[in-house]
Amino acid sequence: MALQIINAGPPPEEIADQIRQAIAQRLPDATIEVRAEAPGHFAISVTDAIFDGLSRVAQQQRVYGAIAELMAGPNPPVHAIDRLECRVP
Amino acid sequence: MALEEAVKQEITELITANEVVLFMKGNRQAPQCGFSATVVGILDSMLPDYQTVDVLSAPHIRDGIKSFSSWPTVPQLYVKGEFVGGCDIIQEMFGTGEIYKTLGVEPIEVVQPSVEISAAAVTALEQAAAQHGGEGRELHLSVDATFQSNLSIGPRTPADVEALTSGVLILLDPISASRADGITIDVADTPNGQAFKVDNPNAPQVQTMTVGELKAAIDANEIVELLDVRTPEERAIAAIAGSVLLNEEEAARIEALPRDTKLVLHCHHGGRAQQAAEQFISLGFTRVFNVTGGIDAWSQEIDPDTPRY
Is residue B1 part of a domain? Predict the structure, then answer.
């Protein structure tokens, strides 16, 4: 088993909050659910009328764009989004 | 981490100058990650030419493309300047057939390959499936571009093709399926226990050429690459006109050539050239020849003025 370096960064719930806020800033009318799955891994579900008519890629780009800062750099707080669901209300 | 104007400009130029651009880890000949390799495999089966950008050798592009596309992962496929998606999306589009329209190519005819499995292999595969399979996890067989086979267990994807077998369910992706017809699977005993033995009749083999055939081909100007697999000392004693010594420089040049380039190899008697030829086969070359009897046969049968040693 690989040695895990103990990350002294913020706890998962705090990062989940940051994700929620970042998405809400970009999509103020959205209903947002963020769940921490494993260290650095999150599942996101976003419901917003703006997704209507958009391709899956275009929908996801809206969300990824909002959280890009949280995923940037060599050791970002958000390592991966395991699941991203975009729904129309 | 804002996207710098210079990087944005560089990416814009790349996706404008080429119709199909894959931002990936590694390059088309040598992908450096599984997801990148998967997308390359799909594109290779449909397009003779496309542009790849290795983000591992360009960190500014590795970060930049994520900002540019609002997409957190690599590989990323661009077609006609538009972001199409990453590995998951490309696989899904391949499965539904949508990818052909996006790339503007004719759809591949999906072939169900016949795979013959020995009784012993059936038992071993059923055991493996019982141990590692489960909800929606099936046996998969993949065949890469160099005809190496791989057995694995994993979830079924929409694109998967069922092999025609007696009893055991084996799934293949469409590209592997097109390379798999006639495969036989058996088990063999190795020092580490039992292993699966996969034999693929479609795999290119080293072909042979007599010195007579070589002479005729040279005279007809048909030989482009005649490679001498001996040492420089041997070459100083005797050489065949038109051949080049396969040193590191030549090997690098050859490895960059299209895989259907005809390669003819010779050595002293034929042993070393056979090994070298098999190496080129494993690199994906499909028309590789070994000159039977080597330069020794050439001296005896074709040109007595060529010294023997």
Answer: no
Chain B nearest-CA residue for A69: B1
Q: Which residues of chain B have pLDDT under 50?
A: none
Residues B67, A68: C-beta atoms closer than 8 Å: yes
Contact assessment for residue B91 and residue B42, using Cβ atoms and an 8 Å cutoff: yes
Q: By residue range, what is the domain housing residue B137?
A: 115-199
What residues of chain A lie within 8 A of the CB of B85, using their CB? 57
Looking up tokens 């129309």 gives A88
Closest Cα partner for B150 from B41, B259, B48? B41
Per the structure, the count of domains in chain B is: 3
Q: How is residue B198 annotated by DSSP?
A: E
A42 near A78, Cβ under 8 Å? Answer: yes
- Is there a contact between B72 and A68 if contact means CB atoms under 8 Å apart? yes
Q: Quick check: B89 and A65 CB within 8 A?
A: no
Q: What is the CATH number of domain A12-87?
A: 3.30.300.90
Question: Could you read off the pLDDT of B200-229 as tens digits, one per residue?
Answer: 999 889 999 999 999 999 999 998 899 999
Q: Do the domain assignments include residue B307? A: no
Average pLDDT over residues A5-30: 88
The CA distance from B68 to B66, in Å, is 6
Q: Out of A56, A64, A69, whose CB is closest to B1?
A: A69
Q: What is the pLDDT of residue B92?
A: 82
Contact between B194 and B188 (Cβ < 8 Å): yes
B67 to chain A: which residues are within 8 Å by CB? 68, 72
Cα–Cα distance list, B291 to B77, B82, B271, B300 (Å):
43, 50, 10, 14
ipTM (interface predicted TM): 0.82
Chain A interface mutation, best of B71, B73, B96, highest count of A Cβ atoms under 10 Å: B71
Q: Which DSSP symbol is given to B308?
A: P
Structure tokens at B300: 């005896």
Q: How far A69 CA sits from the closest chain B CA (Å)?
A: 6
pLDDT value of position B73: 92
